[in-house]
Amino acid sequence: MKRFKTLVVILLVLHAMLSVLQGFDVLSTIDLIITILLAYFVMSYD
Prior knowledge:
The protein is mainly alpha-helical. It is built from 2 helices and no strands.
């Protein structure tokens, strides 16, 4: 379970970096917020 959690967090971070590199518009900002919330949820979920 811990390995899966680490993998999910890495994927979310990569996804966030990609959306930042694509430039900021409304859609990518919303996407980034959802990604951060997902990462927080995964980190706090045991």
